[in-house]
Specification:
2 domains; single chain
Length: 180
């Protein structure tokens, strides 16, 4: 199978079998590109995920673009994006066609309510996984940032900018070279 087809197929499976949005896709993307395919190391994935979160747009789509681009440049990015988008597009299209007739169906409502705990678990799992090996200072900063955004309603954009400035200042203070 060609590499473009592999990228497309991998992200098609991720897009087809993930419910709950972009953050719920992260554990599946992580498994596929690190454990199953060996396309990225854990550190590369964390770096890529950081960039994907700061770029505008859905995180799963951004991650797909970056993974595809890393291996096959623009064609790889296109293959990954098409793979991750086609299932959602098809599902939403079908739901839109029939939603008026089923929106008040008790079984449909029960199914959506039953999926909620699984979606929350899929969102929390990568967060826990990404904290492994972090220094307690980093964990404290992450927790303080989450509380600041959630409880006080502070814009995450300013916290991301502050984190970037803090990282640059820390490296400058320590006198280390930043790897390009």
């Amino acid at each position: 199978m060609s590499q473009l087809l592999e990228i497309f197929w991998s992200f098609l499976k991720i897009g087809a079998f993930t419910f709950g949005g972009g953050y719920a896709m992260i554990p599946l993307i992580q498994y596929e590109v690190i454990s199953r395919r060996g396309w990225l190391t854990e550190q590369e994935f964390i770096d890529l995920l950081t960039i994907a979160q700061t770029a505008p747009g859905p995180i799963a789509l951004n991650t797909a673009v970056f993974v595809g681009y890393k291996f096959r440049r623009y064609w790889g990015a296109l293959a990954a994006v098409l793979g991750v988008v086609i299932p959602s597009f098809a599902i939403i299209l079908v739901i839109a066609m029939f939603f008026a007739g089923i929106r008040n169906n008790v079984w449909v409502d029960a199914a959506f309510k039953g999926m909620r705990p699984a979606v929350v678990a899929l969102i929390v799992a990568p967060i826990v996984g990404l904290t492994k090996g972090m220094h307690w200072v980093g964990l404290s900063i992450a927790l303080a940032t989450a509380v600041t955004v959630w409880y006080f309603g502070f814009s995450p954009i300013w916290l991301i900018i502050a984190g970037a400035i803090g990282g640059v200042l820390w490296v400058a203070y320590k006198g280390k070279e930043v790897n390009p």
